[in-house]
Specification:
Helices cover 68% and strands 2% of the residues. The protein contains 21 helices and four strands. It has a two-stranded antiparallel ribbon. It has a two-stranded antiparallel ribbon with strand order 3-4. Helix 6 runs antiparallel to helix 7 and helix 7 runs antiparallel to helix 16. It starts with a helix and ends in an 11-residue tail after the last helix.
Length: 576
């Protein structure tokens, strides 16, 4: 069976499964729409959280980044998994005990301020919207390559699938759909990794295969080091950025993870406070399966890429020695525009090396999707990978869209503008809000901003510098008041926005000279994607200092903070 037909069958079967689950798990109340009725088992919630978190960035991009960054790519592994340790220990159980539906609702009640709630909604929507653009692009790219549909058609199909199970089921439908999507994406990620590890090293476990020997007895990583050195690049296993920058970047990803609203709201779906902590632990286990596999996928993908784009000489009919121009997988991916070959010297051979004479341009996002083709794996493996990439993008998109729609219907509409709204009308408003944010996200997917490939860093920076400090101080510092919290969030948010936008070249001040986005111009050598750590520090400092010189929070708020942290009666938390 040809690849396109097989891919249609596999992807179609997964979509039918998602729609079937949505019909079965239709939400009948606001409690089910916002928090799945608070009845999700911790293991199931951990699996759904893993799918919610492992977006197109994790499935498609991360191993590609590691493939070209080498050692420095470890910051993604440490940052994105370390955030779940923070969630499990410092946030999830306390937020679940508070018993609300949303992050802005917690911030508004804890800081006894509608302004604080509005600022939290603003931060949530900006961070979530920037993040969801990448998911929409991932959906369109996967469709255009594997199903040979144009980008727009693929995006509309993806939007339609999300619309069905998100609008119908809300958190309840999304939760059980994400469980199915986790199974699909983890199979799609590990199966080709196992095949390629066996093919290259004879080891069935990719995590061990990365440290095993190739058929000639050379360790895989030593061989990759030699290849990149020959091509003129720094060694694959060598650190190439400053330690301070790596620490700040890693910590920004950690606290950004712990502050992303679409991840946090998953812990409102379990029955008890203890279950919230267990959910975070299980999520880390399920995420770890993919994240420990990613370094092996990255190193093996780079090894195969380097060996196949520069094939050896072949004899022509007259006996002359010629070079094969490009392998078939290369030609397949050239049609997407994500892989480009410019024959600068006219010899027909791909010259891949550091410098101006390099003839190959590789989009990092193709490495996982193209990996099975590069390795010559069977068509059914390629079809499963396509389904996995779509599952990863759809699962995270649904979580982000739910976080935004909930902020609109619950925090803005019911919380501020229509406090007496009935549950039936609130549920209707939640569904309308979901449809609206799907339409907006789809529009951005069709007309992405010029910096769409970099917006994930902006999303993490925003969450790290605005939402995470407000949650931490709300739980662990009863002296922080509403004035301090609002000014802290705004200071962290604005400082991070200015730094990222300035060095990314997205705006400039007339009459000033734009500084190039180079290490020598960065503050303490910290790149824009890592500035969330400093933005968070600014947030903490402003909030604490302002709170010290202004009126203390009311006594009942201070008692509320103490009660959140006190284990007494924790298992009896009933919710809203």
């Amino acid at each position: 069976m040809d690849l396109q037909t097989l891919t249609f069958i596999v992807v179609g079967a997964t979509f039918a499964l998602y729609i079937g689950i949505a019909i079965w798990a239709k939400a009948g109340s606001t409690g089910e729409f916002y928090a799945a009725g608070r009845g999700v088992h911790p293991v199931a919630n951990g699996m759904a959280t893993a799918a919610d978190w492992m977006s197109a960035a994790s499935f498609i991009s991360m191993a590609g980044l590691i493939a070209f960054m080498g050692y420095d790519g470890a910051l993604f592994l440490m940052g994105w998994t370390g955030g779940y340790v923070l969630l499990a220990m410092l946030l999830a159980p306390y937020l679940r005990k508070f018993g609300k539906f949303t992050v802005p609702e917690f911030i508004g009640d804890r800081y006894y301020s509608q302004i604080a709630r509005i600022v939290a909604v603003l931060c949530l929507i900006v961070a979530s919207l920037t993040y969801v653009i990448g998911q929409m692009k991932g959906i369109g790219v996967a469709f255009s390559r594997f199903l040979e549909l144009d980008y727009e058609t693929g995006l509309f199909i993806g939007m339609g699938i999300v619309f069905v199970y998100a609008v119908l089921g809300g958190m309840k439908g999304i939760t059980y759909t994400q469980i199915a999507q986790y199974v699909v994406l983890i199979m799609a990620y590990t199966i080709p990794a196992i095949f390629i590890s066996l093919q290259l090293t004879g080891n069935v476990i990719p995590q061990m295969g990365m440290f095993s020997n190739l058929s000639d007895g050379t360790p895989l990583l030593a061989k990759v080091d030699a290849i990149v050195a020959d091509l003129g690049f720094p060694q694959y296993t060598a650190q190439k950025t400053s330690t301070l920058n790596m620490v700040f970047y890693t910590f920004s990803l950690m606290i950004g993870t712990a502050g992303l609203p679409h991840v946090i709201i998953r812990f409102f779906t379990v029955p008890k406070v203890r279950d919230a902590r267990l959910s975070a632990g299980w999520a880390l286990v399920f995420i770890g399966i993919l994240y420990t596999t990613a370094p092996a996928v990255g190193s093996m993908a780079f090894y195969n890429l380097a060996n196949t784009v520069q094939p050896g000489p072949v004899a022509s009919a007259d006996g002359a020695m010629l070079y094969e121009s490009r392998p078939q997988w290369f030609k397949n991916w050239e049609t997407t525009g994500l892989l480009k070959f410019e024959d600068k010297n006219g010899d027909g051979r791909v010259q891949y090396r550091k410098g101006d004479d390099n003839e190959l341009t590789v989009d990092r996002d193709i490495m996982v999707l193209a990996n099975p083709e590069i390795a010559g794996l069977p068509n059914w493996v390629i079809a499963v990978v396509a389904a996995g990439g779509l599952a990863a993008a759809l699962s995270t998109a649904a979580g982000l869209l739910l976080a935004m729609s909930t902020a609109i219907s619950h925090d803005l509409l019911k919380g501020m503008f229509a406090k007496g709204i009935s549950e039936k009308n609130e549920l209707l408003a939640a569904r309308i809000s979901m449809a609206a944010v799907i339409a907006v996200a789809g529009w951005f997917g069709l007309h992405p901003p010029g910096f769409a490939a970099q917006v994930v860093a902006l999303a993490f920076g925003l969450a790290a510098s605005s939402i995470f400090p407000a949650l931490m101080m709300g739980i662990f510092n009863k002296r922080v008041n509403n004035t301090g919290a609002v000014l802290g969030m705004l200071a962290g948010l604005l400082s991070t926005l200015i730094y990222i936008f300035w060095f990314k070249g997205w705006f400039f001040v007339p009459g000033t000279e734009m500084l190039p986005n180079k290490p020598e111009n960065w503050f303490l050598g910290i790149q824009p994607e890592a500035f969330g750590t400093i933005g968070a520090a600014i947030n903490f400092a402003v909030a604490i200092m302002v709170s010290k010189v202004t009126k203390a929070p009311p006594e009942h708020i201070q008692h509320l903070v103490e009660d959140i942290r006190t284990p007494r009666g924790a298992g009896a938390a009933t919710g809203h």
